[in-house]
Design brief:
By secondary structure, this protein is an alpha+beta fold. It has 13 helices and 11 strands. 56% of the residues lie in helices and 12% in strands. Helix 1 packs antiparallel against helix 2, helix 5 crosses helix 6 and helix 8 runs parallel beside helix 10.
Amino acid sequence: MTISYYSYIHSIIITTIIISLICFIRNRYRFTHPFEVRIFASLYFICFIRMFFPFDFKITKGIPFQGIYSILFRKLIYKNIIIFEYSISPVEVITIVLFCISLFRILQYIKKYRKILRDIRKYSYYRPSQIQTVKKLLAETYPELPDCDILEISYINIPMVVGVIHKTILLPPANYSDIELYYILLHEYTHIINHDLLRKILIDIFSCILWWIPCIRFAKQDIDQLIEINCDERITKNLSVHEKIEYMYTLLEAVKRSSNNKEYIGHLGFALMENYHPMIERFKLMTLTSQKKNKVLLNSLILILGLLFIIGSYLVAPIPKYEANINDIENCGYTYVTSENTYLYEENGKYYIITNGNIKSKISKEHVKFLIENGIKFK
């Protein structure tokens, strides 16, 4: 098991193709069942595994490619350049630049997140008496609520959770009714219990590292949607029809309040704010009663094909192929073999190759088969 330039580039190509296909499918096809959510979540997960484990195994078979692929390899890997008296290949320069930009983006993300945690310390608790009333209702769903502060923040207009070790629920300065506040806190506490905030932060960091993949921004938004759908499913599975309507109404009101604010500060928001399409998808899933059998089979087939494609990508890898220059061959004392200057013959069960009429070499039966396939004939 090794890592090489070939496996590194191969991993990037495979991951980019799969993420692009997933984003294309999700752009045209909305979820109609929680089972589909788990399928696409699994596909995203194995994509990240494929990206961060670019290994070549002993069973990996190299497939030679000529043309642009070989030209790029020659120019980017085999042709070194001199920088400050150091010889380095262009692909190493590109890797260093990408790594530095990724590191800068991660540091910026951490700095921004820490600033949020510092800023919220100066804000007061959100209506303690109302919070206590609602927490008594929440105790029926979660007997042991996670310990976290609930603050009122003036510069936000959508509920959210922040904090890695000590979680804090942030609420905008809005006049929520008890029932609205109940569903808002139920949603945020469910995120905390599901450890969604940690998942969200990891996805943000991965997107900082893989920023150069064209579809990574759309994949990140889609994973955010998967997290929200999973949260909705856990909340609504035990709710009555009337309670589901109240929950969806609260979601819709939260999106309406956030429509004038497009700021995204690296948190796990209450709902996606880009447009109403994600909310429509979530509402359809929450009102679902059943799914046709053929849809389940089709979704299972998508997952199986995705897994086979990932596994197959470890079995084969593209490698560049180059034709040796005939002058280089002859100058090194070797002879260029063609069907015009070479023929085969057999003597006492042994095989020989004759080149230019006088160069005689004994060869194996396997080599005979190979030469015949490439146009060399017996005499």
